[in-house]
Amino acid sequence: MSARPRPTSPHLSIYRFTITMAMSIVHRATGIANYAGTVLLAAWLVAAAWGEEPLGVVNAIYGSWFGLLVLFGYTWSLFHHMLGGIRHFVWDFGYGFEPGRREGLAWTNLIASVVLTLLVWTLFVWMA
Amino acid sequence: MREHIVTREMIANPKTKYGNAKASTRHFLLQRLSGVSNIVFTLFLVFIVVRLAGEDRADVVGLIGNPLVGIPFAILFAIVCFHMRIGMNEVIEDYIAEERTNRLTMALNAFFALAVGLVGVVSILKIVFWG
């Protein structure tokens, strides 16, 4: 007896664009970026453990315009992924699925990540 | 660890069993538990980086060398590496279906997470215990 095939879901191209979908994709993208970014943190830590000279080299690279650009992006990526995680906790507990609410959460995720990043950089980098 | 690579045909065929129920549930839970810990890590990291960005070694040793800062930071960093291994495993499961490439990238992922974690943790502990 041949059984009816299970239904499978279509892929991205068939759906219209929604903010929750976009933030889901960005959550994964920032996760991958953070994955790579831990190398920057590990490099800084190992240089600090190593000695004065390697730390100076790492500080010089991270303090260059390109280094600062990468660190700025890394800050945003960390905050976005953190807030995205919190958004998923809210959903895990069964809240925020209503129409409007879920989009609100996704927009909050995006806006708050930008605000937090700008806040940290303004307070501790540009004004320091 | 799953035994088979899940293809579209396997999902459509009602006679197949796919995925690994036990590991998937465990990963789901551990990913969320470590996620909570990572919120603490992120705030801690911002605090440390803000205090130490561009500072010389004496300041770094002064802050991270404090066991009350260094030890929790090392533990949180290890949990971060654990979290990112599970996360990247999920990405690999989704996009790399070819069995050998799948196994290879899974292994590389485990190696990467372990290597970054070890380098970070050993460096922090070196600063804490030996300055």
Key traits:
heterodimer, A: 128 residues, mainly alpha, 3 helical TM bundles of succinate and fumarate reductases, 0% strand, elongated, B: 131 residues, 5 helices
Topology (elements, then pairings):
The complex is a heterodimer of chains A (128) and B (131).
Chain A: H1 19-50, H2 52-63, H3 65-92, H4 101-126
Chain B: H1 8-12, H2 21-52, H3 57-64, H4 67-95, H5 99-130
Helix pairs in contact in B: 2-4, 4-5
Report what the structure shows.
Chain A contains four helices and no strands. Chain A is 77% helix and 0% strand. Chain A has a single domain, classed as Up-down Bundle (3 helical TM bundles of succinate and fumarate reductases), CATH 1.20.1300. Chain A has helices spanning 19-50, 52-63, 65-92, 101-126. Chain B has 131 residues and is an all-alpha fold. In chain B, 81% of the residues lie in helices and 0% in strands. Chain B has five helices and no strands. Chain B has helices spanning 8-12, 21-52, 57-64, 67-95, 99-130. In chain B, α2 (21-52) packs across α4 (67-95) and α4 (67-95) runs antiparallel to α5 (99-130). The radius of gyration of chain B is 19 Å and the shape is elongated. The model of chain B has no long low-confidence stretch (mean pLDDT 90). Chain A binds chain B through residues 3-8, 28, 31-32, 34-35, 38-39, 41-42, 45-46, 48-49, 51-52, 55-56, 59, 62-63, 75, 78-79, 82, 85-86, 88-89, 92, 120, 124-125, and chain B through 8, 11-15, 32, 35-36, 38-39, 42, 45-46, 50, 53-54, 56-57, 60-61, 64, 77, 80-81, 84, 87-88, 91, 116, 119-120, 122-124, 126-127.
